[in-house]
Amino acid sequence: AEVKDLKISDAPLPKSRNLDVISEFQKSKNKKSASFVVVGHVDAGKSTMMGRLLLELKVVDQRTVDKLRKEAETIGKTSFALAWVLDQRSEERSRGVTIDIATNRFETDTTAFTILDAPGHRDFIPNMIAGASQADFAVLVIDASIGAFESGLKGQTKEHSLLIRSMGVSRIIVAVNKLDMVAWSQERFDEIRDQVSGFLSATGFQQKSISFVPVSGLHGDNLVQRSTDPAASWYTGPTLVEELEKSEPNARALAKPLRMTVSEVYRTMQSPVTVSGRIDAGSLQTGDALLVQPSGEKAYVKSVLVDEAPADWAVAGQNVVLHLSHIDPIHVKVGDIICDPAKPIPRADIFTMKALAFDFLMPMQVDVHRGRLHAAGRIEAIPALLDKVSGAVTKKKPKIVKPATVARIVVRLEAQVPLEAGQRVVLRSGGQTVAAGLLE
Ligand code: GDP
């Protein structure tokens, strides 16, 4: 037959090895994957710390840092060099120099990490929300230097913590930074730990999910290497990297039906429909049949890459590339959800969510963001105001929701999109984030 007469459905199905993926995963010595966001007040030292971490883990070399340092010297800000490792688009950065390095991924012996947003960018809050919607955990950076901690608490520290918690992030590692500036005072560290753990539990983080590490991001103490400063000898707990490595993909998510949010769709040699994204729940293997929502079209897994390496299977928490067969590219878009055809994610054009308000909410037009999916919609009803921590109803049918309060709201969308309980969504209006929270 002529090639043009061949239908997609005529191709042979990809072969399955019928693996028990969960037991393969459990016995594999594969690195686990974990993704996190870095939050905290401006100037707390987020970029410097991540830059230093990448340097010590040899993701970037000293030569690159020296080059950045020279460049930083020309504008009289040597200390910016480390921050620039991460923040390639910084505005302060003089023009004309581009150093092409992948700065948002790094590996330790046990884990492949993805930093979900590079801190320091202008449009930070929307980036952070998008990052938090996929994060396994967060790193909160606190500036321990005199006065800075106190002004940070009044500033973005609390706002960011509340935001990431309302996006469903439950584990938080607090890096108490710049301890070099307070001569590694244990008293200062303890004082900050007590205050921060107080407000984090009031924000809804459980004590067992909060860790504190005293660090100096600039000098690299307690990031990868333990501090050699005698004044820091009182701290014998885990380093920041050891804390990062403690993140475990949760077993419940592995056993759930497959859900993967598509972050990119492109054409490759292997397949005209190649998708990349993170597996949010469940598992898959070569040969599996999949369902793409909202198009409702079936596809098959021809081959899989996990963290850029060929693999037979993949599980929740991993970043994957799938080469698909038996599907036309018009049926797959960025923001779609790939799921188990036996237990597909439903489509809906109305949902109820528990939302943390950043601005006044009332019946109004909103853009709904879920990962990379954007859909136009409208707040249709506000059934209740809720207690921030317990979630109990404090008032029924309020006319308006005030900023920094939590409410149950009903949103109607202009089109059907794949939706289910537990998804983290963000509502924006006029380019501003007005609310974030979880679908009920
Ligand atoms: P960000 O806004 O949170 O990303 O903060 P930056 O990484 O840009 O750091 C802000 C300033 O704090 C810069 O001048 C850094 O050099 C400085 N800084 C960051 N970490 C440390 C630290 O551990 N010790 C000291 N002494 N200064 C630091």
From TrEMBL:
The keyword Transit peptide does not apply. It catalyses: GTP + H2O = GDP + phosphate + H(+). It is found in: Cytoplasm. GO terms for molecular function: GTP binding; GTPase activity; translation elongation factor activity. One of its GO terms (cellular component) is Dom34-Hbs1 complex. Residues 31-252 form the Tr-type G domain. One of its GO terms (biological process) is regulation of translation. Keywords: Cytoplasm, Elongation factor, GTP-binding, Hydrolase, Nucleotide-binding, Protein biosynthesis, Translation regulation. Component of the Dom34-Hbs1 complex, also named Pelota-HBS1L complex, composed of dom34 and hbs1. Belongs to the TRAFAC class translation factor GTPase superfamily. Classic translation factor GTPase family. EF-Tu/EF-1A subfamily. This is Elongation factor 1 alpha-like protein. It comes from Canariomyces notabilis.
